[in-house]
Amino acid sequence: MIAKKSWSNWSNWTNTLEQTLDHVQKEIAGDAPIAELRTKAGKAGTGNVLDVDTMATEAQDGACWVLSSKDLHDHFGSKHPTKHGIEGGIESFLGKLKPGQSVAVTSFTRGLPTAVLFAGWPRH
Predict the structure, then answer these.
(1) Which end of the chain is less packed: N or C, by CB atoms within 10 Å?
(2) 40-71: per-residue pLDDT in tens?
(3) pLDDT tops 60 at residue 88
(4) CA atoms within 13 A on the CB side of 12
(5) Measured between alpha carbons, how far is residue 84 from residues 15, 49, 80 in Å?
(6) Whole-angstrom Cα distance, residue 32 to residue 28?
(7) Phi, psi of 9 (to 5 degrees)
(8) Where in 1-124 does DSSP place strands (E)?
């Protein structure tokens, strides 16, 4: 059996987490409408950030789990982790997710959000 590969995408911070998600999805979709790409992919999903429909406070299908300040502090030792720190620790969060689930982790520089890592598992 072939192991499934997780997906991940970094995106520069764009005012809010929702706007950052929208930006990275449009970047990946290019000129194609996101809804059309999702329809073509069917139940299997696109296998990337285009499968994320919404944000959530916990891991769930089709939603991106947004880590709370407590989650960030507990895992990274800071409420404002750096990109380097996130890259070193994302595998443990992916291990908590099931197929079709994803996580969003915001990185900070000097206390300000600078980028977001969206990462998850394909649906099937």
Answers:
(1) N
(2) 999 888 999 999 989 999 989 889 999 888 98
(3) yes
(4) 2
(5) 21, 21, 12
(6) 9
(7) -145, 130
(8) 7-12, 54-56, 63-66, 102-109, 112-120
